[in-house]
Specification:
By secondary structure, this protein is of the alpha+beta class. The chain has 4 helices and 5 strands.
Length: 167
């Protein structure tokens, strides 16, 4: 499995919950733009959400808590603010993870992470293209209908003109 994952753009990770720790491969660090081990601080998983975009953090936190609470597997696409030398860079990631339990509760989560920014941007561009096409079609339909109305007005005006007395 490790060799197969190396042929993909996926990074693999394990989040130990007791005590908290993250073990991620090099691809995880590359995607996040930092050492994944830095995401655990003061024996807490709270730091995991610091790099998540503020618009997505509540949804991501709820999904994480549901998974470690015995709910469905974690399967989310969301934005992160990847640290850079200047302003943080907004990137889209896809994370799929499963929790492992023992008699005392959740022990760890393990899963994969992928940078899907390019796919997300391509989908957004495709959507913008479809919106422009729809607006063009709408404008063409309005112009056609308007032309029909103008044609009727011009025909009636020409007919009325022939019925007017000269002078």
């Amino acid at each position: 499995l490790k060799k197969a994952l190396e042929t993909t753009s996926l990074g693999r990770f394990t989040i130990e919950l007791r005590p908290p720790a993250i073990i991620g491969d090099e691809r995880v660090d590359e995607i996040l733009g930092l050492d994944a081990a830095e995401l655990i601080e003061d024996d807490s998983t709270e730091r995991l959400f610091d790099e998540v975009h503020p618009g997505d953090v509540d949804r991501v936190r709820a999904a994480f808590e549901a998974t470690v609470g015995g709910g469905p597997d974690f399967d989310e696409q969301y934005r992160i603010l990847r640290p850079t030398e200047g302003e943080p860079e907004e990137r889209w990631i896809s994370v799929a993870a499963r929790a492992e339990f023992d008699d005392e509760g959740p022990v760890r989560m393990f899963g994969v992470i992928e940078d899907v920014t390019d796919r997300h941007r391509a989908a957004e561009a495709h959507l913008r293209t479809h919106k422009r096409e729809a607006i063009g079609t709408l404008a063409g339909g309005i112009a056609h209908d308007f032309n029909n109305v103008i044609g009727a007005i011009l025909s009636n005006a020409a007919l009325a003109e022939t019925e007017l007395d000269r002078g």
